Amino acid sequence: MHDEYIFEPVPQPGLEISGTDKLFPVHRIYCVGRNYADHAIEMGHDPNREPPFFFQKNPDSLVRQGQDFPYPPATSDVHFEMELVIAIGKDGIDIANDAALDHVFGYAVGLDMTRRDLQGEAKKLGRPWEVGKAFESSAPCSPIVPASVIGHPEKGAIWLNVNGVERQRGDLSQMIWKVPETVAYLSTLFSLKAGDLIFTGTPAGVGAIQRGDKMVGGVDGVSEIEVGVV
């Protein structure tokens, strides 16, 4: 028990790191919106290159490898979005593009699960997206693979199958804002901390899941994730 608190604080969220028994302590989760042109088009937006925008999920929204995704309440339209995840390992603010990769500890793959009906209502009313994006268990994520092992991927297939049927496929080379640019731009808005995660956006093909579905996806050369919907 921590004597300085009136009750026991919630545990520190963490992700496994491939090749070690240590955990990566998660500070914040940032997500890039519409970072693939084909996904921007399917969502009804202009795919031209504009400054990136970001929203957040909560660190305790993580679902680690081997855990299930519980279908959330207050919705009937939950969508998958397969993404490359950047794990920040060094603090920084106003980071230059050519120094951005020095702040990256490694990479994972994750799912930006979305209550699309609630997000759509929020968009229409000009309200924040938290009810659609930041609910419990909305961020399934694989173990982190250190950049010292795999380098910094610039290309490679990103894909997702649901019940054995391919639903999403793109390539990291199609990202509008690349990893260094994303890290550098985000650091002009927030003080990045070791422990931050950045979900980098999803290719086209997002769609709904149902209880009993099994999602299997990954980024070639990085990692894979398997999540059941319960």
From TrEMBL:
It is an enzyme of class 3 (hydrolase). Pfam families: FAA_hydrolase. Residues 29-229 form the Fumarylacetoacetase-like C-terminal domain. Its EC number is 3.7.1.20. InterPro entries: Fumarylacetoacetase-like_C, Fumarylacetoacetase_C_sf. Keywords: Hydrolase, Metal-binding. GO terms for molecular function: fumarylpyruvate hydrolase activity. This is Fumarylpyruvate hydrolase.
